[in-house]
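Let's practice the habit of predicting before peeking. Look at the sequence and jot down your guess about where helices and strands might fall. Then scroll down.
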Amino acid sequence: MATLEASIIINCPIEEAFKEITNFKQHPNWRNNLLKAEITSSGPVSIGSTYTYDMQVMGRKIETTGIVVDYQPPKIYAWKATSVPFPLSGKVICEELTNGTQVSETILAEPGGFFKLAEPVLLRQQKSQMEKDLKNLKELLEKSR
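Done guessing? Here is the structure:
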């Protein structure tokens, strides 16, 4: 299983960062490979909430579904994909700092099938994408201040 990690400090309160991170409809605004995201269960986001993601990965459109497995506002949000070509899960941890919020993202993946053949390239690309996405999130949140 591959572990990918990225982190950034954002000049905004922890509550603002967490709110944006858990607002699925806004994810395409800062996640570059994401075409569409939405919560498919009723009520506010919480443990057990379900979602769909439409993504573009290595030139392929992938539609995934998942479930929120940990939700502790404003610090922890974790998810697990339930319909993807390989096991995939992740966690975002927000930590309050004197100069803003540190946002750290971890993704666990075990590529299989076509993706197993391209694993080294896929992992490098995903790590780079995570870093870009967090930079986009930082720009979005700091621009709105």
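How did you do? The beta strands are 2-10, 34-39, 50-57, 60-72, 76-81, 88-97, 100-109.
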